[in-house]
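One record is set out below.
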Amino acid sequence: MPTARFDRPVFLTAGGADEVVPVEVLERFADDLRTAGTEVEFVRHEHANHADLLAADGDAITSWAARILVAPAPSAPTADRARSWFSLLDATGDGYVTRDDYEAFALRLVQAFGQPPGSPAALAVRDGYRQLWRALAGRADISQDGRISESEFFAWIDGVGADDRFDDEIAPLARAVIALADNDDDGLLTAQELGRLLASCGLSTAHAHEVFADLDQDRNGSVDTGELVAAIRAFCLQPAAHQSGSWLFGTM
């Protein structure tokens, strides 16, 4: 398992008598995940073997899942919330937003949808994310060191304007994502087409319906490039999990 920062909390349980996965291995893994910035809850059952763990931790797992899946209502950004917004864009967990983060977002999306990384559709998506990264870096990378710090990111957001041509630079990504799932090649995503794409990203049917309703601003039964551009822009300016474009950045 990779020890990069995961974009969601992780629950780990281990048995001191586990004959398949030694408890020491899981302890080191939990420590590595925390070091990378992942939120980890680790529970050790000293006398449990591999087969005992589910029974031993069933109630704890259920309680933990119920606790983290009940999301608070969106509220005004505090310092902590703003920091969490920034971390959603920092896929590699190194404290900066870089091109590598956008490469990770692209690969995550195309592989989740079952596209080989070198296919034309996948390459178009990856190029769209790269263009979005260049647009963001051109605006927010004040020090021009190839990475965006948290302070640079929020300085850009504070000064962003409506006519900054950012939408034009988001459009290639929006068009590539639509083409990825557009079965009839009409340049639009129906609820069924988008639902298939969202399902591959791990969204439930109910959540996919909610996302489609948010994206379909003109209520015509489809999502076009402009509507997806608006969602991507909204997430870039306020990268919160409740945003309808969050799934494009691995946040679901």
Residues 71-77 have pLDDT under 50 and may be disordered. Residues 10-69 form one domain. Strands lie at 10-15, 40-45, 189-190, 222-223.
